[in-house]
């Protein structure tokens, strides 16, 4: 499920860092903590464990802002903004919404924003084939040994390992949520060729780590329950850092509108 948060600058203009992902993650944990600190501490420190891997099982979009100016490393926000946060965990969404509904304002980095309203969005029913676009860019990585030292490397979207990693990551999340493997593990992900031929990706700094990510439209064919995992948890790595939130391309779905286009 998803929460849509609509807010506006507390003052005529609020300024945030252009690499704002970390500050939104911090805002989310702060909101959760006000409702249930024990839950928040466990989520932050441990998450949900599967073997040696830890998952937080939430993701969020880029900010969608009506009026803004980018100057060097800062974004000056002067009008309404939208943020989407998604998770398959109802407890997460309850604690988040509980605090948001009581909050008069939220803090993102050095900026303060008035919360106008919070909406819990309806569940989506998926078919075996869906087309998506990105509300936040997708990233995945691999570990390499360089000089006897293990280092994380961002995988290029044109590398076959990129899609392989996405598939494996989806299966792990599915297992974590359902305590079993899906009956049909076939997953086919096809990114738009035009995008692949013209993209260099987007570099986002999270704390002091540079993350290469891609806002690539794609088509996925899989069990609808696997597609639901991608939609609710996020696709790829670092979802809780604001990567991999996807939205259905609703242009071919009668009676539905796009939730939003690309953010800042």
TrEMBL record:
Gene3D superfamilies: 3.30.70.1890, 3.30.70.1900. One of its GO terms (biological process) is defense response to virus. Keywords: Antiviral defense, RNA-binding. Residues 126-248 form the CRISPR associated protein Cas6 C-terminal domain. It comes from the Bacteria. InterPro entries: Cas_Cas6_C, CRISPR-assoc_prot_Cas6, CRISPR-assoc_prot_Cas6_N_sf. Pfam families: Cas6_I-A (PF21350), Cas_Cas6_C (PF01881). Belongs to the CRISPR-associated protein Cas6/Cse3/CasE family. CRISPR (clustered regularly interspaced short palindromic repeat), is an adaptive immune system that provides protection against mobile genetic elements (viruses, transposable elements and conjugative plasmids). CRISPR clusters contain sequences complementary to antecedent mobile elements and target invading nucleic acids. CRISPR clusters are transcribed and processed into CRISPR RNA (crRNA). This is CRISPR-associated endoribonuclease. It comes from Caldanaerobius fijiensis DSM 17918.
């Amino acid at each position: 499920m998803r929460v849509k948060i609509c807010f506006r600058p507390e003052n005529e203009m609020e300024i945030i860092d252009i690499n704002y992902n970390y500050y939104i993650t911090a805002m989310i944990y702060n909101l959760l903590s006000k409702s249930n600190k024990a839950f928040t501490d466990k989520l932050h420190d441990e998450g949900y464990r599967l073997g040696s891997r830890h998952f937080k099982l939430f993701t969020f979009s880029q900010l969608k802002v009506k009026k803004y100016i980018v100057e060097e490393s800062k974004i000056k926000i002067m009008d309404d903004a939208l943020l989407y946060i998604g998770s398959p965990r109802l407890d997460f969404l309850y604690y988040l919404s509980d605090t948001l509904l009581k909050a008069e304002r939220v803090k993102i980095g050095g900026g303060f924003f008035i919360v106008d309203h919070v909406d819990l969005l309806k569940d989506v029913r998926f078919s075996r084939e869906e087309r998506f676009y990105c509300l936040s860019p997708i990233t995945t990585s691999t570990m390499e040994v360089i000089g006897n030292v293990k280092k994380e490397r961002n995988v290029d979207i044109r590398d076959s390992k990129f899609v392989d990693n996405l598939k494996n990551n989806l299966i792990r999340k599915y297992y974590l949520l359902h305590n079993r493997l899906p009956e049909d593990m076939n997953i086919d992900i096809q990114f738009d060729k035009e995008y692949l031929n013209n993209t260099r990706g987007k570099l986002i700094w999270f704390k002091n780590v540079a993350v290469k990510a891609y806002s690539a439209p794609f088509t996925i064919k899989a069990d609808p329950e696997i597609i639901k995992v991608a939609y609710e948890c996020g696709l790829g790595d670092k979802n809780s850092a604001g990567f991999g939130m996807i939205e259905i391309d609703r242009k071919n779905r009668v009676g539905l509108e796009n939730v939003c286009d690309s953010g800042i």
